[in-house]
Amino acid sequence: MDIKITKARKSDVHEILRLIDELAEFEKLTPPDEKAKKHLVNDAFGKKPAYHVILAKIDRKTIGYAFYFYTYSSFLARKTLYLEDIYISIEYRRLGTGKLLFNKLIDIARKKGCGRMEWCVLEWNKNAIDFYEKLGAKELKEWKYYRLSLE
Amino acid sequence: MDIKITKARKSDVHEILRLIDELAEFEKLTPPDEKAKKHLVNDAFGKKPAYHVILAKIDRKTIGYAFYFYTYSSFLARKTLYLEDIYISIEYRRLGTGKLLFNKLIDIARKKGCGRMEWCVLEWNKNAIDFYEKLGAKELKEWKYYRLSLE
User: Is A114 close to B51, i.e. CB distance below 8 A?
Assistant: First the structure.
C-alpha cells in the first residue's frame, strides 16, 4: 500500500477530528467536546498556528497524524521540534506509517535548524516505547516533569 | 528590599548572560559558548522570538530570570505556558523572588488563555521540588519524556 505523508490542510479537518476521537478512546481519555474541536481547528489553521499537523494517507483515506510545534532549548540555543501527538488508526498498524511520520518530522526539524526532537509517552504504551528506543531516542530519566493547572 | 519583575529588553542582555553562566555552574553544566550566546540573544530579541524573558531586579541589579514560551495541549485545545528556565542568583535566595516570578508567569499565562503551566526540574533539586509542590503543581508520573538528538 502506498502511504503518503503530507502537510494537513483545512479540508482535512473532518478526518483529523475523526482520528482524534479514535485516539482518545485508545488512550482511555475523554474525547474533545464540540467547543474544544472548534479550538483545535482554529489553533492549527488560523492566522498564527499554535501547532502544525502532518498526515499519513492511503489514497484519500487519512490513516494517521502527527501534531507538533517548536519549543526552545536554552542549553543548545536552538529550537526543538516537540511532538505533541502521533496516532495511527488501529486497523492500519504495522505498515511502517509511524516510521514515515517520524522521518518526515526529523526532516522538518532539521530544515528548521532544530537540535532535538522531544515528546512524551504514557508509561504503559510499551509498543510505542520500543519503537522510540529503536529510533535512538533516550528517556530523560534525571528530570521530573511538573504541571500547574490554571483552569 | 524592593524586588521588581519586568519584561526583559535588549539592554538587559549582558545581565542575562551573566546569570546564565551562573546557572550553568549551579546545574553542573557547560555554560554556552560565544556562538550559543549570540543565538540566545537573537532568539529572544529578534523579529520572531522563539522564547520570552522576564527579569527580577533590585534597583538596577538583575537578580533572576525566567525563560518561557508557549506550547499547546491538544487535550485541552489550549495553549500552555512552558517554563524553560528559572534562576535566582545564589546570593539573593530566600527573598521570595521565585514566588514573584511564578506569580508573574501565571498572570501572563492566564492573560494568554493558557490552561496549564509546565516545566521540568532536575530530580536532585529538592528545594525547587518543594517549592513547586507548595505552589500546587503536580508531577506527571505516568508519562515518560523522550528526546532524539539531531546534532
Answer: no
Phi and psi (nearest 5°) for A94?
A: 65, 25
- φ/ψ of residue A134, rounded to 5: -65, -30
Residues B24, B32: contact at Cβ < 8 Å?
A: yes
ipTM of the shown complex: 0.93
| CATH code for the part of the protein at B3-135 | 3.40.630.30
Q: B95-142, pLDDT tens digit by residue?
A: 999 999 999 999 999 999 999 999 999 999 999 999 999 999 999 999
- Do B84 and A74 count as a contact with CB atoms less than 8 A apart? yes
Closest by Cα among A31, A28, A11, A7 to A19: A31
From A65, A132, A145, A146, active-site residue:
A132
Cell of B74: 491538544
| Distance (Å, whole) CA B90 – CA B97 | 11
> Rg of chain B over CA atoms, in angstroms?
16
Bridge partner residues of B91 (DSSP): none
Instruction: Out of B67, B110, B151, name the one closest to residue A150 (CB).
Output: B110
In a mutational test of the A interface, the residue from B75, B117, B121 whose CB has the highest number of chain A CBs within 10 Å is: B75
Q: Which one of the listed residues B72, B132, B145, B146 is annotated catalytic?
A: B132
- Contact between A150 and B32 using a beta-carbon 8 Å cutoff: no
Pairwise CA distance, residues B97 & A128, whole Å: 41
Mention every residue, 6+ apart, whose C-beta is less than 8 A from residue A129. A121, A123, B144
> What is the per-residue pLDDT across B33-42, written as a single tens digit (0 to 9) for each?
999 999 999 9
Residue of A nearest to B85 (CA): A74
Judge contact between B81 and B108, C-beta under 8 A: yes
Residues making up chain A, counted from first to last: 151
